[in-house]
Amino acid sequence: MMLDVHASNVADTSCLFEDDKQPSADEVAAVFDDEAHSYALRSEAVRAVPWGAALNTHFWWGPAAARPAEVVAEELRGRILALYDKHLSADGRAVSYAALKQDLEFWEYVDATAELQRVDLSPLSRESLMAFAINLYNALVIHALVVHGPQQYNSTTGRVGFFQKASKYNIGGYDYVLDDLENGILRGNSPAASTIGMLLKLPWLSKGPFKAGNPRAQHVVRPLDPRIHFALVCGAKSCPPIKLYSAATLEEGLAAAADTFCASDVEVDAAAKKVRLSKIFSWYFPDFGADKAARLRFLLPHLPADKQASLQQLLAADPAAQGISVEHKPYDWTINAAE
After folding, report:
1. HSE (CB half, 13 Å, CA atoms) of 276?
2. Cα–Cα distance, 333 to 153 (Å, whole number)
3. What residues contact 324, with CB distance under 8 A and at least 6 apart?
4. How far out from the chain centre does Cα 244 lie?
């Protein structure tokens, strides 16, 4: 293990701290008594992270506090943007994972995520927290696929482990897996699609990932914005395109994401009284409306003129949508790799 003092005064601390144990601020200060610097205890095994371990604790950030959350988020956003410019396809739907793994800038991004360990999310506005969580979710998916590879992702049980165990960042001293970022923060601590309540279409039977008294429950987005589902990219080919979001332009960004996704994925057959949708609308059905008619009406402002007119025609003739058939298309879980 090495001590990195903002790229200066590197010293060997292998005899002082264990790779798998976070030293306290007092332990660090006892060895390096210098309040003018932030110290990062860096593991030499950056690229080999055990399944289930946080991906940003290869060194520990401290003893000084992290910078404000918005500053850290903006720096990470800039690093992610630079990587997307090099390794993301023009349409945002494919990632060059092999090239990313060989890119020094990716590993510099990985090092930068260590500061998340001491970030305080409390000062973030609703829009800032949403942009932060969306961008981090998409980056964490890519980070985990680069480190762990796609093998586990290729089966249903493997994907459960990927989303609920292996894809993890330490944020503000607490572990957040992908499910926590999505269902905990962005969906206002709502039950995951894989819970029994959601599977039975009885969401009240299940609870969100943050139990009562969990400090992470203080940082959730309410009310939730269903358009987040068109911004979150889980690594599969059926996912929306990858984009970056900022608090200042979040409304425009989410509106564009919803319009793009619905234009390409929603099919309306007025003659057959049938609407075909992505599985996303089935998995997260409560987010889009209280009943079938409400969920179909949610689509209207996001559809191109021809599809919008067809759906309006169906709903005008059948306001309760009882005679409108809704079909959910198979989801392609093939990794969105450009290779």
Report:
1. 8
2. 8
3. 273, 274, 275, 292, 296, 314, 315, 318
4. 11
Q: What is the pTM of this model?
A: 0.86
Token pair listed for 330: 């198979």
**pLDDT confidence bin for 46, thresholds 50/70/90:** low
Alpha-helical regions (H) of the chain: 25-31, 69-87, 97-101, 104-112, 126-148, 156-161, 178-179, 196-199, 250-265, 280-283, 292-299, 305-317
Token pair recorded at residue 281: 């609308």
Residues 6 or more apart whose CB falls under 8 angstroms from that of 69 comprise 119, 120, 121, 123, 124, 128, 132
CA distance 39 to 60: 8
- Tell me how far apart the alpha carbons of residues 64 and 62 are, in angstroms, rounded to a whole number: 5
182: Cα separation from own chain's centroid:
6
- In order of 29, 32, 152, 256, the CA distances from 39 in angstroms are 9, 9, 35, 41
Q: What percent of the chain has pLDDT over 90?
A: 78
